[in-house]
Every structure is written in C-alpha cells, then in structure tokens.
Give the backbone structure.
Amino acid sequence: MKKKLSTVVFILTMFFSWGQAPCDSLIIVSTGGSNQAFLQVSLNICCLPAPIDSWTTTSNNGTILGHDTMSITHDIYNLNPITTIPFDTLNTCLTYSWTSNNVMTCCVTWVWDGLNWINMNNVNSIEEINSTNKTLIKAVDLSGKEVDESKIKNQIIIYLYSDGSKEKKFIN
C-alpha cells in the first residue's frame, strides 16, 4: 500500500509545480477536542514536489507530539504528558526526496494566538515589509554627541540609520 501511495503521489507531482517547498502550503486544523489538542497538518497536493517521506511535530521543549510516514496529512496529539495542557508552540518538520540523492527537509513553527494556529514562517511584520538596506550613519549618546561605540560601557547608545530609523541599545 505504501509503495502504491508513493507511486501515485510521485505521478501527481509530475503534473504540478516542482518549484515550491511543501512547507509553503501547510495548514493546521483541529480534529476534535479543543482547538489545541487534536490537530492535523496537511498540505495542498498541487504544491507537493515529491513524496513526503516523514513528518515529525515536536513541542517547544522537544516532546514528540506526532510522527507519520508516506502521507500527505499528519496527526498531532498536542498534550503535555505531565500537565495535560496543550503546548502553544509546535514545530513541524517534513522530509521529502526528489531522488534518493536529493533529500530535503523543511520546518514550520506554529504558535497558538488564543484563537488560531499561526504559521510563523508566513508572518510579516511592518518592520519586515518596510525593511530596506539601511546603513549606519552614526552612533550618539543620550546628549546627541557622536561616540565610538567600541569605547562605551554601561551606557545607552542611539544608532542613526540612512533610512531615518533609529535603534537604542544599552552597551555593557
């Protein structure tokens, strides 16, 4: 059965894009219990570049919450074995191979925001959207006097950048 499934998945990938990583199209859904406890991760089959050899999900402390092989879905039992409280951060890694010599692994970090699981690989903040190739113009102390940061200790320094942004740092 596994060999047949592998063959079918491989043939399907011939008709679709080989340029996308499977982690780009992962979704997570609740399959019972609370929205955090019983979960299933799946991917859009059109984005499958090769058969998924294995899936593994761990908590942020390394507890293995699920492991599946040769499947396009992955079940997760998300309960801390000691406290029986669901973890709020999960790491899902999947391994796939185009050929026996070309094995790839990609990982997604999921964070529970109180209502939904957020794929942290797809989160964009304002800083990421507006980031530019900024260069440091100068470093100044709180009085506005330019300083050599290599000679400063136990002081706040303000870095001024070419794009108009500034960054404050405490130097030990």
Remarks:
- Residues 11-19 have pLDDT under 50 and may be disordered.
- The chain has two domains: 21-119, 136-171.
